[in-house]
Design goal:
alpha+beta, 443 residues, 16 helices, binds zinc ion
Amino acid sequence: MNAAMNAATPDAAKRADVHAAADATPDAASHDHRRLGRELDLFDTDPLMGSGLPYWLPDGAAIRHTLEEFVRGRERRAGYRHVYSPVLGKRELYEISGHWAHYREDMFPPMDLGSEQVVLRPSLCPHHALIYRSRARSYRELPLRMAELGGMYRSELSGVLGGLTRVRAIQLNDAHVFCTPDQAADEAVAALELIREAHRALGIRPVRHRLSLPGAGGKYVADPALWERATALLTDVLERSGVPFEAVEGEAAFYGPKIDVQIADAAGRESTLSTVQIDFHQPERFGLQYTGADGAKHRPVMVHRSVIGSVERVVAHLIELYGGAFPAWLAPTQLVLLPLSEAEVAQAELLRQRCLDRGLRAEVAGPERGSLGARIREARLVPYQAVIGPREAVDDRVALRLRDGRRLDPLPAREALAGIGALVDACSAELWDGAPAGGGVGA
Ligand SMILES: [Zn+2]
């Protein structure tokens, strides 16, 4: 895929409004998320915190928080329940899971703690397996869908670290579905559908689906029957979902094959965003069980899946996709209030508070920041700009300017906030519902 991929797709054209600012500079360099991240005050790094350990500034944190709540909401609707588990675990835990034997070179060295050793976790699966195992489980509880947006760590070499895409501390949107063998394919199909819906809402267009199989080398758990069974299942899942895919050797997890949903960055480099995996290995290693309808003990299957991947990678991708001109629901500042003069500042502050009370992210850019034209230019990535002149201040109205250049006739403030709020709540890619009230297109 080339660098202009995003601007060239028909969908991108349909989303012309959200791309207005982005399309002005569609080259890869200007869309590099590292550069935009710094320019837009979204995230940064400090050599004292260490490379590969970015921190999030308030605007970046607002995007991240919104995304996290978005994905949690989608998961709740799909029958997942959320847990929290710690980012550290005893070394024995990863010996049982197989990470210690198959994945150690990607893990941070263990920490000595008295007579035991603890490690920063390289994945969330072992913790979730233990949570499953902590209670007696019946077939009636299955499929049990356990989700967590949790931290995990990878000891990447400093040479390959950069921005949000290669990091050492990862916040993963993860889940494990514990189910009967008969339920596994349906759960994987449902997970793929959840991924597809989330991508659609976010405007993400995957470049391809990959069936990732084991390759040569000792990285993989040796159990040919298990691999065969899981691979057949995932192939069936992909075929049932009607998604074209390519089988690629050497990309599987050490414990099983996976479906990888691939995206490309502004420079055309491909990476995995979302995954669905079928795992017969860890249920075995952890001795997971459920009581079947026959009263006997059975082994569940674990379906691992990530809808938006790591928060770091998906935010990096969205920064490049939108060039900083995020859809209103994701935008760090959704509405900027522009009092014409000092006389309207108090009204603007009141309106800002009403926005905050309604859950909207709003800022006031007062006359001390320059002329109205200068303030409008400065806020060009903000989806909504509300100009408040003397008339609007008295009547409690606002004259809305949309980021795509449309200008609406002055509206009662209540109506404007309700309109924006409804689009934000719906995660809409549109800036306004229906035809503009007047004013037409123009800057
Ligand atoms: Zn997992």
